[in-house]
C-alpha cells in the first residue's frame, strides 16, 4: 500500500525546494500533502502560537501520514524542534528533516528526528516511500539519508532537466498562519511568480550558506542550468493558472550568464511569456551585451550585491571580488538602459568599512534601492568558523541558536548610526550633501537621533513604492497588510 506523506515548509510559502519534492512525489502518483506553516514577514516573525500548533496537530491527525517531512533553515531550528516534539506526543509517524540546516548540521538534528536528508531531497524522499518494511527505516540504505544507525553517502547532484515541472494542487495544500488554517495554494493570488533557472552558486563568499553547502560536493559541477525549453514550459503553465500574474522574479543565486543560453532564452521568453522580469546578477560577470539582451525580453530590475565598500573586507574577509570599479561599471550600464537596480549590503559587522560603503553609495547616481542585511552567522561557513576561532562570537551567536531570521534579519536603526546613515543614500528626495553633513562625528555618536531621518525616509519610500505598485496594478490587500507590518516593525528593507 502506498504511504501517505505530508511535507511542511516553515516560514516559507514559496518553498521552491519543498515544492520540487512535492511535485516528484505527485508525479509518481503518491498521496502527498503540503503544509505552509507561517509566512515570513521581514523582521516581524512571531514564534508559533498554541493555537497554530494545535491546528497543525489536528490537520496531521486528519491526514494520517506515514511520513512527515519538515524543511527548515538554520533560523527556524528551534521552531522545528518545538513542533517536532509536539507532533511526536500525539502522532506516530516517521519524521524526516531536510533543508539547509540538517544538511550542514546532521548530528545536531538527529537528536530530535528519525531521519535527516542531506542535500537534494527529491529522490531520497521518493525512495523512502518505497520501503515496504517500516522496520527498515532505521537503516534505509538510501543515499543522502542519515539515521542514528546509518550515515549514507551523498548522491550526485540532480540533472535539473529531469525534474518534473512544479505542481500546484490547491486541494492538497494548506496554510497555517495568524491562528487560522485554510486549504489552497497560498501563492496562486500573487502578482509576481518566483522561478529558478539554475541551482547553485559559482562563487564561495565566506558568509553565505552556499559556502558550507559546496563542501559536500568538492568534485561536482555545483552550478546547473535548466534548458530554456524547460523554463519556458513552466512559465507557460504558470500563465494559465496564476490569474493575477504580471511579472516574474528569477531568484537564482546568479542568473545564467552564458550568452548562447541568454540569446535562446530572451528570444523565446519575449515570444511566449512577454512579462516584465527581475534577475540576480554578479557585478563582475555582467556585460552590456547581456543587459541589452535581457532588456529586449522584458528585464525591469536587477538585484546584485555590494556587501561592503571596503576592498580589503571584500577580498580578505568576504572572499568576494565585487570591487568598486565593477559596481560603478554595472551601475552605469543599468542607468544607461533604464533598468532598476537593488543593491544588497551587509551591516552590523565587526570589521568596519562603513565609511567606504557610504562613500561608494554616495558616488552612485540615483535612482537605486538598498537591501541592508544584518550580518548573520550561518553554521560552518568559513566566516563563522573564523570568528569563532578568534573569540569574536560564541555558540549562541550562530543562527540556529540566535534565530535572527525572526526579527533581526534586516538592519535596525536605533542602535547603529551607520545603519541609519547608509539607509539614507538611496532616497531620491534627500540630497547627498545632507547625508554627508550627517556623517560627522556629532551625529555618528547619537544613533537615536539619526534614526529619526532614517525612519522618515523609510516611510517616504514605502509611500512612493506603494504608489508605483498601485499604478502598475500590483497592489492588493495582502501586499498592503504586509507593507504595514514592515512599517510598524523596527526594520528596514
From TrEMBL:
Location of the B12-binding domain: 1-139
UniProt keyword terms in alphabetical order: Iron, Iron-sulfur, Metal-binding, S-adenosyl-L-methionine
Keyword Protease: no
PROSITE patterns in alphabetical order: B12_BINDING (PS51332), RADICAL_SAM (PS51918)
Pfam families named in the record: B12-binding, Radical_SAM
Superkingdom of origin: Bacteria
Gene3D superfamilies membership: Cobalamin-binding domain, tm_1862 like domain
S-adenosyl-L-methionine found in the keyword field: yes
GO molecular function: catalytic activity; cobalamin binding; iron-sulfur cluster binding; metal ion binding
InterPro entries associated with the record: BchE-like (IPR051198), Cobalamin-bd (IPR006158), Elp3/MiaA/NifB-like_rSAM (IPR006638), rSAM (IPR007197), rSAM_horseshoe (IPR023404), rSAM_sf (IPR058240)
Cofactor(s) the record lists: [4Fe-4S] cluster
Domain Radical SAM core intervals: 186-421
Annotated signal peptide: none
PANTHER family the record matches: ANAEROBIC MAGNESIUM-PROTOPORPHYRIN IX MONOMETHYL ESTER CYCLASE-RELATED
Protein name according to UniProt: Uncharacterized protein
Protein's organism: candidate division WWE3 bacterium RIFCSPHIGHO2_01_FULL_35_17
